[in-house]
Amino acid sequence: MNDDAPDDSEPAVALGELLSDHDETLAVAESLTGGLVGSRLTDVPGSSAYFDRGYVTYSNDAKLETLGVRRESLDAHGAVSAPVAREMAAGARDRAETTWAVSTTGIAGPTGGTDEKPVGLVYVGIAYAAPWGTEASFTRSVRAEFSGDRDAVKRASVDRALVELLAAVRERTA
């Protein structure tokens, strides 16, 4: 047994099984995690069956141009916000034409935090594309705060993104 291989209790493995079982696909849109969510997902053997692509959109311009995040959302709420997390996820889902997308945006530190938006603040966005005409498509976001250094915040953000996505997929496939 390979000690580096993910086991069945890891969210990335469980996600892969659910997505494969339901013939659904996934894209990711990442800011503070810089590709780590996609990396974790593709660590799972067979992930090419459901993982379509990842977008790393670190700057506001990249979010606007690549994912279609609205300028008004960036101006009014900033890149680290619930509306932007939702729009990032929806943009990834719609541009990749996948069933699901997850996004991450936040402040990994050690600088960049404010009283309103401290270092460690993260938003995870989830977007689901239901079959046309069902009106069951949705976007949602979750706010979290993590402590630790830059690496710890990024790792915790990846973990939270996968857990939130897994919960949403389980909810839809139950």
Description:
The structure is a single chain. The longest helix is centred in the last third of the chain and has 24 residues, at 150-173. Helix 1 packs parallel to helix 6 (150-173). This protein has one domain (11-173): Alpha-Beta Complex (Maf protein), CATH 3.90.950. Strand 1, helix 2 and strand 2 (51-56) form a beta-alpha-beta unit. The radius of gyration is 15 Å and the shape is globular. By secondary structure, it is an alpha/beta fold. It has helices spanning 11-21, 36-42, 60-67, 71-77, 82-96, 150-173, and strands at 26-30, 51-56, 100-106, 121-128, 138-145. It contains six helices and five strands. It has a five-stranded mixed beta sheet with strand order 2-1-3-4-5, sandwiched between helices. Helix content is 41%, strand content 20%.
Task: Give a quick rundown of the structure.
This protein is an alpha/beta fold. The protein is 41% helix and 20% strand. The chain is built from six helices and five strands, in the order αβαβαααβββα.
